[in-house]
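Work Package 3 (structural annotation) set out to generate three-dimensional models for the target panel prioritized at the project kickoff. During this period the team completed the workflow that converts sequence records into discrete structure tokens, so that structures can be stored uniformly alongside our sequence database. As a representative example, we reproduce one entry of 491 residues exactly as it appears in the project archive.
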Amino acid sequence: MQAKTLGELKKSGYQALSIKNELRKNLIHKLENKELIFEGVHGFEDTVIPDIERAILSRHNILLLGLRGQAKTKIARLLIQLLDEYIPIIEGAELNDDPLQPISRYGIDMIEQHGNKTPISWLHRDYRYVEKLATPDVSVADLIGDLDPIKAANMKLSYSDERVIHFGLVPRSHRSIFVINELPDLQARIQVSLFNILQEGDLQIRGFKLRLPLDIQFLFTANPEDYTNRGSIITPLKDRIESQILTHYPKTIELAKQITQQEAKINEAQKSRVFVSELLQDLLERISFGARESDLIDEKSGVSARLSISGYENLVSTAERRALIHQEKKTNARITDFWGVIPAITGKVELVYEGEQEGPYGVAIKLLAAGVKEAFLELFPNPSKFKKGREKDPYGTIKAWFVGGNTVNIQNDASDADYQKALKSVAGLEKFVSSYKIDAKDKFLIMELVLHGLSEFNVISKDMLDASYSFGDILANMWDDMSDLGEDYEN
């Protein structure tokens, strides 16, 4: 039973801990019992998470430094699980005063007035987490506080009385976790206001110096300092943050897929209607990995994991929309469905000059093409090896069909029946795919992959029309282009 007065709290034998010691105590318990601490955070088991655990054991304030979309805020919010479920506070205290160690004038006066009958309330750990996004308009008053002339007038107090202070977010986070996201965006003069709080616990509000031994676990997040040149963490503040921990993107496709599947908002109705092959899940992650290495994209800005997450949601929705149009209860996602993923790519990358020349759409198409090429080579031999005719070409029948003047069009919104019919019309394609060990569910998807793959190696041509892909003979396509040039020249 929870104590309701200061006297009952003392009789219970309650002992107050600083928040850093509280986090340390609960972390030790979880480590000793091999309990999962940062649930849903993948790929950091051997890097970031051990660093955070060491920082907590050392009672450090923490700076998570990394590019966007690297789970920095997620980690910060999960620290709540290392807090005690409830802590006692003096009822009505705006600074979460510990009944045994009050720091505010209100808390001290309550105990002087009521003694052991001072009323106690219990604060749940969910209310001991404060998060602030740093923006250039954040003021000292927002974070630290200001003098309140209305309060002074109503209470008939002079400005030398601390009761006229309206406290900001930081003092109100006493005995809590306080997170500032994107710290470099905070103006230098505002960062200066955090110096004494981090080290000495002093507050200075418009010349009013107040000694408040605030008990706060600070956690800051930031992108690398040179990102967009909007600002940086000033050196004296950085010096006062004891542990700086570098985050990173997933290092493998498998880890990236795990994160995407966990974070993507796909409901049960979508899951039951749309099947997304592992091949397409891999292809989506290859796009993200390729974007992070692309010379067309600014590596300093990073490529967030949200690209894959939003892309997966769009991929499923594109296939779902197609199925709804044709009243199909179930469908498989296709490579052509990636035309619906492109909006999720273009909004998630910052281009360098060369990328701007290509345009966001052009860069997205290049990333998709590179991913398709890589996926194709994981399953099939490189078509370039067979161009000189030294060995039997496994693609011979398919190539011959296109050389004969045949073409195939795959509509973006084609029904499953029309999609399969179009792929089956390509002589030798189904037989070629069936000669490899594949899941029957993926047969038509892999048939489509062969066409896209051959086009990337310039074995056949591929034209992207408004609502379809058209595959044909590459030489015939070249002659058509030359004819068009000739007509333009004559005109």
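The radius of gyration is 31 Å.
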